[in-house]
Write a structure and sequence with these properties.
This protein is α/β, with parallel strands linked by helices. The chain has helices at residues 16-27, 39-51, 66-80, 103-131, 153-173, 191-201, 209-217, 232-239, and strands at residues 7-11, 31-36, 56-60, 85-88, 135-140, 178-185, 250-253. The protein has a single domain (7-187, 228-253), classed as 3-Layer(aba) Sandwich (Rossmann fold), CATH 3.40.50.720. 43% of the residues are buried. Belongs to the short-chain dehydrogenases/reductases (SDR) family.
């Protein structure tokens, strides 16, 4: 197993990309603390890991709350003896026209997607430094952070910031033996994608979810939407010793999306 003996804290582990990568890391020998704002779904992920013969635990965690972050780090240390890996997969999306975007919704997006990513990384890195054993932090960015999106401007801005934050964290932490990289997924078949489709399907164009899928797939060289498991090998690699000289990078995993 490629990640045998590692101990991981995974945010957004209750569904989608976070759940899939948490399970993939567990299959490779990592003990995983599954963190999510929804404790029930986080617990389901931990149960799946246990049923497959791995070590999993769960905690309810809002990444926008410092107390929740501190509690998660403390529980990971209590349960598994430390932290070696972090996956920052917690995120929200708000699809709104520019003139309907409010300060409150913009702030909430930044609180979760950007501030949450930073403060989880900061708290976990403190523990890694105290252990003196180094580690790896992988942030989930998005191809939306590479290109503007008129209906998702706050989401795109937050993910662009995550890409830059990843570079900065990598520079700050590599001297402590902590490697920081990111993955930028493309269009993924997740609950978040379903939410986006419902937004567009309810719009003036009256497009169906199937129409939206077909239109998006036409822009993807691979000819299909991604699925969460498409990210697993990259997440395993970036968490492994094989990635020790890959520093501050953001890897697009998008099937070859074409942008105008």
């Amino acid at each position: 197993m490629r990640l045998s003996g590692r101990r991981a804290l995974v945010t957004g582990a209750g569904s989608g990309l976070g759940r899939e990568i948490a399970q993939a890391w567990a299959r490779e020998g990592t003990a995983v603390l599954c963190c999510d704002a929804n404790l029930e779904t986080a617990s389901e992920t931990a149960e799946r890991i246990a049923e497959a013969g791995g070590a999993g635990a769960a905690i309810g965690m809002d990444v926008a709350k410092d107390g929740d972050i501190e509690a998660a780090v403390a529980l990971c240390v209590e349960q598994f003896g430390g932290i070696d890996l972090v996956l920052n997969a917690a995120g929200i999306v708000r699809y709104q026209p520019i003139f309907e975007t409010t300060r409150e919704s913009f702030r909430q997006t930044i609180d979760v997607n950007l501030f949450g990513t930073f403060f989880v990384a900061q708290a976990a890195a403190r523990q890694m430094v105290a252990q003196g054993t180094g580690g790896a932090i992988i942030n989930i960015a998005s191809i939306a952070g590479r290109h503007g999106a008129g209906m998702a401007l706050q989401y795109s801005a937050s993910k662009a910031a995550v890409i830059n934050l990843t570079q900065s964290l990598a520079q700050a932490m590599i001297g402590h033996g902590i490697n920081v990289n990111a993955i930028a997924p493309g269009y993924m078949q997740t609950a978040m994608w379903d939410q986006i489709k419902r937004t567009y399907a309810g719009g003036a164009l009256g497009a169906t979810g199937e129409d939206i899928d077909l239109n998006v797939c036409a822009t993807i060289a691979a000819g299909r939407l991604g699925v969460p498991s498409d990210l697993c090998e990259a997440a395993i690699f970036l968490a492994s010793e094989g990635a020790r000289y890959v520093v501050g990078q953001t890897l697009n995993i998008d099937g070859g999306v074409e942008f105008n």
